Amino acid sequence: MNTLPNALEERKDNLHTHLDLAQAMELHLVDGAPMLIGATTLSVGHLLTIKSALIIHLYNIVEAIMTRTIEEVGIAVKLESPVKWSNNTLREWLRSYASIDGGQENRLNLFQDAALKLLTKESIGTAAFKKPTGSWHDKQIHVFSKRLNVSFPLTPSIARKIQRSVRYGDKTPLEFLADRRNAIAHGRRTFENGANDLTMKDIRDLADVTIEYMEHAATAFQNYLDNKKYLAGIV
Q: 27 — alpha (psi -120 to 50), left (phi > 0) or beta?
């Protein structure tokens, strides 16, 4: 199946449409006559707002694909009896199951319920998995893949592209993206200054490396699902 790669492809096409629109708008503002939409004259301020929206859009692709990944893993795992799960699958299911706050009695009830579910030879009703704390970026995706024992090889090219860089404030591109998205979404930067230090080429370059990395991630997790690597004895 290609559930995850197809979901990414659809969102990638949508992003490129918006990137092209912003690029055309930038070229027109630099080289063309004033552009009117109704009574509004498009300005640099409008372009800056669109640039910030592109940052949020790009991060949302990362978050959407990883959220879909967690959902698809849960759907696949719950169809199998817990006695068939791999140790990694069991551990990550327990991580999510035990994350509910409560006192000693509540925790005891929780673990008793978990034990009863795991002793059954039937599939369980739900199988939720917990994302690493914080925003999604390459380091968090790596942590999640290691927890589930997902084979996630990177080509030398993409491994080089996602290294920390002065260009991104000594962060990886995806760390920079997550940090900048949070700054805009949480109000530390306004929409007009959220990406005012980035050219459209900068944003397109950031989009290219982010999408390329997410293509590797989507393929790795899809292979994990297709080959049922969440089960014990599957290598």
A: alpha
Residue with tokens 């009863």: 116
Query: So where are the chain's domains?
Result: 3-94+121-226
Q: How far apart are CA 163 and CA 157, in angstroms?
A: 10
Q: DSSP per residue over 42-106, as a string?
A: P-HHHHHHHHHHHHHHHHHHHHHHHHHHHHHHHHHHTTS-GGGB-HHHHHHHHHHHTT----HHH
| Cβ proximity of 152 and 213 under 8 Å | no
Q: Which tokens is 161 given?
A: 């592209």
- Tokens coding 73: 């893993």
Tokens representing residue 70 in the block: 């967690």
DSSP calls for 155-172: -HHHHHHTS-BGGGTSB-
Residue type, 87: N
- Confidence band of 107 (pLDDT split at 50, 70, 90): low
> Distance between alpha carbon 145 and the CA centroid of its chain, in Å?
12
How far apart, in whole angstroms, are the C-alpha atoms of residue 225 and residue 166? 36
Q: What is the pLDDT of residues 13-51, one digit of tens each?
A: 999 999 999 998 888 887 766 676 777 777 888 899 999
Contact 195, 203 (CB under 8 A): yes
User: Which of 138, 157, 153, 3 lies closest to 69 in space, CA to CA?
Assistant: 3
Can you read off the two tokens belonging to residue 156? 């030398």
Q: State the Cα–Cα distance between residues 158 and 198, nearest whole angstrom.
A: 22
What's the CA gap between 23 and 26, in Å, rounded?
5
